[in-house]
Write a structure and sequence with these properties.
The protein is α+β, with helices and mostly antiparallel strands. The protein is built from one helix and four strands; from the N terminus they run αββββ.
Length: about 80
Amino acid sequence: MNNRLIIILSHGMGKADPNLQLTLIKKYFDLLLQSENLPTAACHDSRYDQQGVRQKGPAKLNLKKLRLEQTEDGNLHIFTT
């Protein structure tokens, strides 16, 4: 998956039934977190570990923690701190 950019819009991943879009994006993030080959930041090629700690690259700061909640109807809500 080198040199790929994945853009996530407001309703999940792909063009399908909304519940399937949410299922796909959740599975994608679950698999991504299990991977040792984490993506880089597209704008400056910095790398971060699963906790958001900078591993290499020009970035000076770690990633901010986000809170993720799934509602009963399957919607994902992402909150900044």
